[in-house]
Amino acid sequence: MGRIQLEQVSKSFGELQVIPPLDLEIEDGEFVVFVGPSGCGKSTLLRLIAGLEDVTSGQVLIDGTDATDIPPAKRGLAMVFQSYALYPHMSVRKNIAFPLRMAGMDEAERDRRVQNAADVLNLTDYLDRKPAQLSGGQRQRVAIGRAIVREPAAFLFDEPLSNLDAALRVGMRIEISELHQRLGTTMIYVTHDQVEAMTMADKIVVLQSGVIEQVGSPLELYRRPQNRFVAGFIGSPKMNFVSGEAAKPYAAESIGVRPEHLQISSAEGAWKGVIGVSEHLGSDTFFHVLETGLAESITIRADGEVALNRGDTVYLTPEPDKIHRFDARGRRIE
Amino acid sequence: MATKASRAAARMMISPSVILLLGWMIIPLSLTIYFSFLRYNLITPTGNPFVGWENYYWFVTDPSFKAAMINTLLLVGGILLITTIGGVIFALLLDLPMFGQGVIRIMVIAPFFVMPTVSALVWKNMFMNPVNGIFGRLATGMGFEPVDFFGQIPLLSIIFIVSWQWLPFATLILFTAMQSLDQEQLEAAEMDGASWRNRFWFIILPHLARAITVVILIETIFLLSIFAEILVTTNGGPGTATTNLTYLIYVSSLLQFDVGMGSAGGVIAIILANIVAIFLMRMIGKNLDA
User: Fold this and answer.
1) How many pairs of residues across A and B have Cβ atoms under 8 Å apart?
2) Is the CATH number 3.40.50.300 carried by domain A4-232?
C-alpha cells in the first residue's frame, strides 16, 4: 500500500518560505509527476515526503498514519537520486543488497532478491562490476534496483533521467513506465521536463514557486489548463498567447492557442504575418510567424509537406473551439 | 612536442636541472657509501684505512641499534595511529555546521606552522615540566604526585608532542576529502536504513581510504627522520629510551666523531626508508587505482 497525503504541509528555510501550506493526495498505485521550472520547490516537496527534510508545519500521512516524525528509513519509501548516489566502492551486487543488509536480512534471501531485481532490470551480467565501469543507463538501473529490492510502499524519483542523453532518456522513460505497470506501486517522480511528465504520469502536479497550480491527468492539463502558467508550461512547442485588442472579441483579457490548433494559409485567414524561422522535423514543420502585431512571434505547427519560405506572407486562423481564454489574473474563463 | 626536433630541444632544455638534481643526490650518497667503508674517526687521526664491512658490523651489533630500531617503529607507528584516527574524528567534527567555522578551521591547522624545536620546547617547559608545567601544577593542585614526563614516559611524551604537530596535517587532508563526499550518497544510505554508525563504516570510511593512505605515506616519510624534538627534549635518553635511528646516527658521527660509523648508519637508514617506501607505494598504488 502506498497512499500518501500531505495536509497543510509547508517548508521554510529560515525566513524564506519555499513551500506555503499545501494539500495533496496521492492514491495507492498512482504514478504522480511533480513538474515545474527549476526552483519551484518540487524537489523539496519530494524530500519532505521522503523525510530527508523536516516539514515546518503540517502533516505527512503514509497509509493513513502520521509519518511526520518517522525517520526516512522507517517510512517504507525508496528514492532514486539525480546523481544515482551509488556507493562507488561497492560492486553492483553489494549496492543493490545494501538496504537489505542494513535491514539485517539473511544472506540467502538477500541473494535471491538481488538476483530477482537484476533479472527485472537486465543487470545480471554486471553484478560484479563497480559503478565506475557502467554506462549512465546501467547506473540508473542499479539505482532503481537498489530501490525495488526493498519492496517499498512508494518510489520517489528525483529527476532520474536528467543526466542521460536524449536517446537513452526515451528508453529509460519507457522502462520506468513498464516497471510501474508491473509492480503497481505508487511512484512519485520529479522532473522539469514536461514531455516526461506528459508521457509517464497518471496524475501531474504542476508547481510554481512552491504553489500547486493544477493537479490532473496529462490530457486534462493539456485540454483545460486552469491558468496561463499551466497553459504555457504543458505542451510543446509552447502555447501562443495573444492579449489586448485581438483578445477583445473573445471577451477575455488574453487568449491562448496551441501551435497545433492554428491553420496556416497563404491566401486568407484571421491574422496576417510573415514567416521567420522555420524548424523542419520531417513529419512536422514549426513556423515562427513574425509581424502579426499580436505577439513578438507566433509559433504554428504545420504538416511537414507545407512549402513556405522565410519572408512569405501567410494568414493564420485559430480553431474556434480550441481557444483558451484567460482573465486579467491569468485564470481560465470557461 | 610533436616533432623529433622539438623533443630533442626539450631534453636539452631540462638537462641542466636534471643534472644538477642528480648531482645533488649522487655526490653526497656516494661519499656516504665511501666513508662507510673507511675507519674514519676524527679523534684518532691515524689515516683512513679501508676496513670493509667493519663499520656495519659494529653499528648493527651495538645494543643501542636494536633499541633505536624499536623506538623508530614505536614512534612512527604511534604517531600514525594517533594522527589518522584523530584526523578522521577532527574532520568529521569540522564538517558539522557550527558557529565561527572559518576561524575554528584555521585554528585547528595552526600547530602545523609552529617550528618543531619551538613546539617541543614549549611542551617541555610550559606543559610537561613536573615543577613549572601546567600538567604538574594541575596534578599538585589536586594533591597528586606530578608526572615527570620525560623521566617516566619519555617515548610516549615525544609521540604525544609530534602527534600534536602532525594532527593538523592529517585533519586538513581528511577534511578536504570529507568535503568531496557526495551528500546524496549519505542521503541514499539514510533512506536505505543505515544508522549513523553504518553510514560512517560503509560510506564515509571507504571514501576516506584514499586520503588516509596519502596521509600515512607522507607522514611516514617525515616521521622516520624525527630529530629536533628528541634533541631539545630528552637528548635520546634516559639511556636509549628515546633514541631513534636518526638520533643514533647523530650520536655516532657528531658526538663520537666516528664519521665511518655514522655513514654506515646512514646507509642502513636509506635502505630501510626505501623498503618502507616500496611497501607504501604498492599499497597506495593499489588504493589509488580502485
Assistant:
1) 59
2) yes
Q: Does domain A238-333 have CATH number 3.30.830.10?
A: no
Residues in B 158-187 with any Cβ partner in A closer than 8 A:
182, 184-185, 187
Q: Check CB contact under 8 Å for A52 and B182.
A: no
Please report the pLDDT score of residue B288 as a whole number: 61
User: Which residues of chain A are in CATH 3.40.50.300 domains?
Assistant: 4-232
Are the beta carbons of B245 and B276 closer than 8 angstroms? no
pLDDT at B85: 95
CB contact under 8 A, B193 and A103: yes
Write out the CATH class of domain B53-289: mainly alpha
Residue A68 clears pLDDT 90, i.e. is over it: no
CA A205 to chain B, closest CA, distance in angstroms equals: 24
Domain segments of chain B: what residues?
53-289
Q: Report the C-alpha gap between A67 and A77 in whole angstroms.
A: 11
- Return the pLDDT at A202: 92
A239, A222 contact by CB (below 8 A): no
Helix A166-183, helix A136-148: angle, nearest 10 = 20
| pLDDT higher than 80, residue A22 | yes
The C-alpha of B221 sits at a distance from chain A's nearest C-alpha, in angstroms, of 28
- Give residue-wise pLDDT tens across range A200-226: 999 999 999 888 999 999 999 999 999
In chain B the first and final C-alpha atoms are separated, in Å, by 31
User: ipTM score here?
Assistant: 0.80
Indicate whether A14 pLDDT > 90.
no
Decide if pLDDT at B1 tops 70. Answer: no
* Residue A108: exposure state from Cβ atoms within 10 A (0-12, 13-18, ≥19): exposed
pLDDT tens string B170-211: 999 999 999 888 888 998 998 888 888 989 999 999 999 888
The predicted-structure confidence for A187-198, as pLDDT tens digits, reads as follows: 999 998 888 899
A145 touches chain B (CB under 8 A): no
Mean per-residue pLDDT, A49-76 = 88
Taking contacts as CB-CB distances below 8 angstroms, the residues of chain B near A130 are 290
Tell me which H or E stretch contains A19: strand A16-26
Q: Which of A321, A322, A278 is nearest to A297 (CA)?
A: A278
Taking chain A, what is the end-to-end CA distance rounded to the nearest angstrom? 38
Residue A147: closest C-alpha in chain B = B192
Smallest CA–CA distance from A86 into chain B, residue: B185
Phi, psi of A316 (to 5 degrees): -115, 140
